[in-house]
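Homework help board

Subject: predicted structure for assignment chain

Our instructor gave us this sequence and asked us to write out the predicted structure in token form, then describe one feature. I got the tokens but I'm not sure how to describe them. Can anyone check?
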Amino acid sequence: MSFALAAARPTIAATMQDLVFVFAGFFVGFVVALTGVGGGSLMTPLLIFGFGVTPNLAVGTDLLFAAGTKLGGTLQLARRQLVPWRVAGQLSLGSIPAALLTLAVLRHLGPAEPAVQRAITLTLGAALLLTAAATFYKANLGHAPQRQPAVAGVDPTRARHPALPIVLGAVIGSLVTLTSVGAGAIGVAVLLLLYPALPLARIVAADIAYAVPLTLVAGLGHAAIGSVDWALLGLLLCGSLPGICVGTRLAQRVPQRAVRTLLSLLLAYAGSKLVLA
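My token output:
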């Protein structure tokens, strides 16, 4: 009997660990649906600090996690005809090539090399600090940002300058590929500047839509160089879908300002810890 119990303990421990990962996916999906903050800014530091996952594995796994969750959001937004596909395409012209170039550099240097791990950690910390600032600003702005009124004959999906979406898309593409952070609050802030006449709902839809091919390409690239934990990815996705459903239902019942302010402080703490580590 004692032998049977001893043999069962590793199985029980493994099952409990799996449940913890499922709960982590639920938590991130819940908070993303509740606040609108990008999942990468939550999941990647959680995997690094909470579970001791190496930075390259945390980033690669989270990228495919984000691709799955953002695909579902894009399909819902597309059904409501909110996605400005021209805007998403313009950003993708810069972000996808930049992601491929970043992946080539990571492959050449070796994602598990200490110098690469440190570069990922520092860049992730800086991205979290930027996300924290954007989230704090949005939480305490007090009102929706003023958008330029629509003008007859002017296409709101036309950027201030035709090259800017490609250039800034490339910057975000590299940042997302290296850290899995940047296609959320930072992406929305960039889109607000590029498309001043585009309604806010369509800005958010564009940010989610263009992030799908970006995170998918970046995630599969990380998988090709061995930086994805597939078992962990499956557990996180199992938890995230119910979390998104619950968070969506409760989003209108919680004090958004207080929740987003608290979240921005937590992101700032995580970012500072990564930068100073």
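Reply (TA_rk): Your tokens look well-formed. For the description, you could write something like this. The mean pLDDT is 84. That's the kind of observation they're looking for.
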